[in-house]
From TrEMBL, chain A:
Record protein name field: DUF5658 domain-containing protein
Regions that span the bilayer: 12-32, 52-73, 80-104
Highest taxon of the lineage: Bacteria
Organism whose genome encodes this protein: Candidatus Curtissbacteria bacterium RIFCSPHIGHO2_01_FULL_41_13
Keywords: Membrane, Transmembrane, Transmembrane helix
TrEMBL record, chain C:
Organism: Candidatus Curtissbacteria bacterium RIFCSPHIGHO2_01_FULL_41_13
Transmembrane segments: 6-30, 42-62, 93-112, 124-150
Keywords (A to Z) from UniProt: Membrane, Transmembrane, Transmembrane helix
Protein name: DUF2269 domain-containing protein
Keyword Transmembrane: yes
Length: 108, 150, 153
C-alpha cells in the first residue's frame, strides 16, 4: 500500500474512532448533567449555556481522540468496517437510551 | 407534482408491463416519473415545513400541530418517505410499494385540502388503510386485465 | 420574536432539512451498482455543511431565545412533557449528527477507491448514511411536536 493510502487509512480510522468516543461522551455528559446539577451549573457558568458546553466539550473530545488514534493507529489497522459498525450501533443505541432516559427523568 | 408523477408512473408502468418486459425507452420514461415524484416529495416537505413555521410564529400551537388531520397527514408523509426508500432498495415488492405510494400521495392531497375534516386520528388512519387496500386491488386488477387483453 | 431570531429559526429548519435531503441523496448514490464518486463527495460534503449550519443557527436560537421565552410557555401549558422529553432528547441527539456525517465525508474523500472495490466498506457507509437520515428525520419530527406545544398564553 502506498504512503498516501496508508496515511488516508490512519486518518479515516482515527476520525471514525474519535467520533465513537465523541458520541459516547455526549451520552455520558447528557445523563451526568441531568443527575448532577452541579455539573450542569459548571457547564452553564463556564460556557454561558450548558448545551454550548456539551457542544464544545464533545468537539474537544473528538479532536483530541482523533489526533491520538491517528498517531497511534496500530489497534485500528484494517478495522475501518468494524469501527463504522461500532459507530452505527453506538449512535443508534444512544438515541434510544437518551429518549428512554428523558422519559424516565420527566417523572418526579 | 407528486400526485401527478405517481399517477402517471402507475399508468405508464401498467402500459409498459403489458408485454411483460420494459425496454430501454420505457425504463427512461419511468425514471423521469420517479424523478418528478422525488422532486415533488422534496417540495412537499419544504413547503409543509414553511406552513408549520407560519403556524408556529402565529402561536397556533396544539390546535394545528396536534389536530387529528395534521397528525394523520404527517403519518402519511412518513409512510410515503419510508416506502420510497424501501422501494429504492427493493426491500418491498414494487407493485405493493407503488400502490401504497400512490394511495399515500392522494391521501396527503385530500388531507391537505379537506380543512374542516373533524374526525379522530384513528378513523382517518383506518380510512387511509382501507383506501390503500382499494388502490392496491384496483392497480392489481388493471395490470392483470391489461396484460390479459394483449 | 425579533426578525433575526425568526430568520435563524427558519435557517435552522432549512439547513437541517437540506442536510436530510443531501444525505438521502448520498444514500441513494452509494447504493447504486456504478458509483459516481464525484457526486458522493459533493453530497456528503454539502450534507455535513448543512448540518453544521443547522447546528449554529439552531444553537443560537436555542441558547438566546428558546430557554427564556419558549420553554416557560411549554412548561406552563398542557404539554410540559413535550419539552421535558422531546426537546431534551432532540437537543442532545442532534449533537451526534455532525460527527456521524463527518465520518461519512472523511471515508468518502479518503477511501473512494475502496468504495468501488470493497462491498463491505460500501455497505457499512450506506448503513451509516441510513442511520444519519433516520436520526435527522426523528429530530425533525420532534421539532414539529415541540413547535406544536407552543400555544397562545
Amino acid at each position: 500500500m502506498n504512503k498516501l493510502a496508508k496515511n488516508s487509512e490512519r486518518i479515516i480510522t482515527g476520525v471514525t474512532a474519535g467520533s465513537i468516543v465523541a458520541v459516547f461522551s455526549i451520552i455520558l455528559m447528557t445523563v451526568f448533567a441531568e443527575v448532577n446539577p452541579a455539573f450542569k451549573k459548571w457547564l452553564a457558568v463556564n460556557f454561558t449555556h450548558h448545551w454550548i458546553g456539551k457542544s464544545v466539550l464533545s468537539i474537544a473530545v473528538f479532536l483530541v481522540t482523533t489526533i491520538i488514534f491517528t498517531m497511534f493507529n496500530k489497534l485500528f489497522k484494517n478495522k475501518l468496517v468494524l469501527l463504522l459498525w461500532v459507530l452505527i450501533i453506538i449512535a443508534s443505541i444512544g438515541v434510544m437510551l437518551l429518549l428512554a432516559f428523558f422519559y424516565w427523568h420527566s417523572f418526579p | 407534482m407528486g400526485v401527478g408523477g405517481a399517477t402517471f408512473a402507475e399508468i405508464f408502468y401498467t402500459k409498459f408491463q403489458s408485454d411483460k418486459k420494459v425496454d430501454l425507452f420505457e425504463h427512461e420514461v419511468l425514471k423521469i416519473c420517479v424523478g418528478v415524484i422525488r422532486i415533488g416529495l422534496v417540495i412537499l416537505v419544504f413547503s409543509g415545513l414553511g406552513f408549520l413555521v407560519l403556524a408556529r410564529l402565529a402561536y397556533l400551537g396544539p390546535d394545528v400541530f396536534y389536530s387529528s388531520r395534521f397528525l394523520a397527514k404527517m403519518t402519511v408523509v412518513v409512510v410515503l418517505l419510508f416506502v420510497a426508500l424501501l422501494m429504492n432498495f427493493r426491500f418491498i415488492n414494487l407493485e405493493l410499494g407503488s400502490s401504497i405510494s400512490t394511495a399515500s400521495w392522494y391521501a396527503a392531497m385530500i388531507l391537505g385540502i379537506w380543512r374542516n375534516l373533524n374526525v379522530s386520528y384513528l378513523v382517518i388512519m383506518l380510512a387511509y388503510f382501507i383506501f390503500g387496500f382499494i388502490v392496491f386491488l384496483l392497480l392489481t386488477f388493471a395490470r392483470k386485465h391489461f396484460v390479459l387483453k394483449k | 420574536m425579533s426578525s433575526v431570531l425568526i430568520v435563524f429559526l427558519v435557517l435552522h429548519i432549512i439547513f437541517g432539512t437540506g442536510g436530510i435531503v443531501l444525505m438521502t441523496a448520498y444514500l441513494l448514490l452509494i447504493s447504486k451498482k456504478n458509483i459516481e464518486i464525484k457526486w458522493l463527495k459533493v453530497s456528503s460534503i454539502l450534507a455535513f455543511l448543512a448540518f453544521l449550519a443547522s447546528w449554529i443557527f439552531g444553537g443560537f436560537y436555542y441558547t438566546s431565545y428558546y430557554g427564556k421565552a419558549v420553554k416557560p410557555v411549554i412548561l406552563k401549558g398542557h404539554f410540559a412533557r413535550v419539552h421535558e422529553i422531546l426537546m431534551e432528547t432532540k437537543e442532545h441527539v442532534f449533537l451526534f449528527i455532525p460527527f456521524l456525517s463527518l465520518v461519512i465525508v472523511a471515508v468518502t474523500l479518503a477511501a473512494s477507491g475502496d468504495l468501488i472495490s470493497d462491498s463491505k466498506v460500501k455497505k457499512a457507509l450506506a448503513s451509516l448514511a441510513f442511520v444519519v437520515v433516520g436520526i435527522a428525520l426523528f429530530i425533525l419530527i420532534l421539532g414539529i411536536f415541540v413547535s406544536g406545544a407552543v400555544g397562545k398564553t
